[in-house]
Amino acid sequence: MFDIWDRLLGAFSVDMGIDLGTANTLVCIRGEGIVLNEPSVVAVIKGTTQIAKNGEAVGFSAKDMLGKTPGHIDAIRPMKNGVIADFDITEAMLRYFIRKVHNQRSFVRPRMVIAVPSGITKVERQAVVSAAEKAGARRVYLVSEPLAAAIGVGLPITEPTGCMICDIGGGTTEVAVISLAGIVKSESLRVAGDECDQAIMLHMRKNYGLLIGEQSAERIKVAIGSAYPLRKEMNMEVRGQDVGRGLPRKLVVTSEEIREALSGPVREIVGAVKATLEATPPELSADLVDLGIVLAGGGSLIRGIDRVIAEATGLPVRVAKDPLTAVARGTQVFLENLGEFRSMLAAAEE
Fold first, then answer.
1. d(CA 101, CA 99)
2. What is the pLDDT of residues 190-238, one digit of tens each?
3. Confidence band for 342, pLDDT divided at 50, 70 and 90
4. Is 1 exposed, middle or buried (0-12, 13-18, 19+ CB in 10 A)?
5. Residues 6 or more apart whose Cβ sits within 8 Å of residue 199
6. Contact, 57 vs 42, CB < 8 A?
7. CA-to-CA distance for 83 and 21, rounded, in angstroms?
8. What's the number of CA atoms in the CB half-sphere (13 Å) around residue 277?
9. Could you tell me which residues come within 8 angstroms of residue 269 by beta carbon, excluding any fewer than 6 positions away?
10. At residue 6, does pLDDT exceed 70?
């Protein structure tokens, strides 16, 4: 049972569900929904953990600085592959977001439900808990990202029926078959949106001798990226730095060549889906023939990736409604049903 004191405090605290993502951090509040959705980026004074611009260079304002900072400022993405790569900067980022959301609504420190990749280690899990506690959490619960995504898109995870989720985020791809409120089989692949951006950057350098940054690669991916041939192919002007001369240059790239650049990461994602299916018990596999696979996360918006997975598996595949917020919406459901879902959550030691 939850202790009575914690329940009493819960009536006065602004409890939060957090999707602590490699690319973006989303925060929801019990009874209100998503109240914050910002890039997981922090700009700090070089060599310190002091946030630049008077402590305000976090999220959107910090992302605008990526690749453009002067020598005394570093723009940092403290999350990598779904886990904490820089503990102190992650703590500072969380503290900023919590303060921004909390906004002196309550004097009681909040409880937090935080989604984490299913494949992270015990040490990585404890790092998330410690960062959240130091940032101001009263109590921290961790939930596996595929479970959060599945419940966020409305899959019947508590029923004796097999359902399958593929959450393609910024740092990880989480694939899981779920039944009776538990993960039966899963794959946690550290290949996702960031690797797609890196593949585009490599393509531009290797084929054109043009250096582009992460933000430019992301814009290309969103504008003309695809995993499956398009009915009408597209092209786009790209600007960057010439490798040989060091001077600015522009050129036009096509959706066909960007699709080829993305083929490696897409192939790995499809491989993770197939590996999960091959390890799934027959009775649950039978359920998936009708229910199929649901895609969530920003990577599910790559044009045609649902068709590629459908052709590779022979199963129906659909992209969830509002896939970018699926995990965050799932954490809110867990937050509002802590007693019912406690078996799926890992509570931090008090």
1. 6
2. 999 999 999 999 999 999 999 999 999 999 999 999 999 999 999 999 9
3. confident
4. exposed
5. 261, 262, 264, 265
6. yes
7. 8
8. 22
9. 166, 168, 173, 189, 191, 192, 299, 305, 309
10. no
Nearest residue to 39 (alpha-carbon basis) of 62, 57, 6, 13: 62
How many CB atoms are closer than 10 A to CB 348?
Answer: 19
Phi-psi category of residue 55: left, alpha or beta, with phi > 0 → left and psi -120 to 50 → alpha: left
Extended beta strands in the chain, E state: 16-20, 24-29, 33-39, 42-45, 73-76, 79-80, 83-84, 111-116, 139-144, 163-168, 173-179, 182-189, 210-211, 235-242, 248-254, 293-296, 317-319, 346-347
Give the percent of the chain with pLDDT over 90: 76
Domains present along the chain, CATH in parentheses: 4-40+77-148+326-347 (3.30.420.40), 153-191+263-323 (3.30.420.40), 193-255 (3.90.640.10)
Q: What is the pTM of this model?
A: 0.91
Instruction: Provide the token pair at 254.
Output: 């096509």
Map tokens 């009681």 to a residue.
108
pLDDT band with cut points at 50, 70 and 90 for residue 349: very low
Of 333, 329, 337, 346, nearest to 19 (Cα)? Answer: 329
**What is the C-alpha to C-alpha distance for residues 79 and 115, in angstroms, rounded to an integer?**
13
Strand residue runs (E) in 111-214: 111-116, 139-144, 163-168, 173-179, 182-189, 210-211
Residue carrying structure tokens 């410690």: 130
- Identify the residue with better confidence: 30 or 97: 97
pLDDT, one tens digit per residue, over 48-88 is 889 998 888 999 999 989 888 888 999 999 999 888 999 99
228: DSSP letter: S
CA distance 49 to 263: 38
Spatial contact of 24 and 39, defined as CB atoms under 8 Å apart: yes
Read off the amino acid at residue 295: L
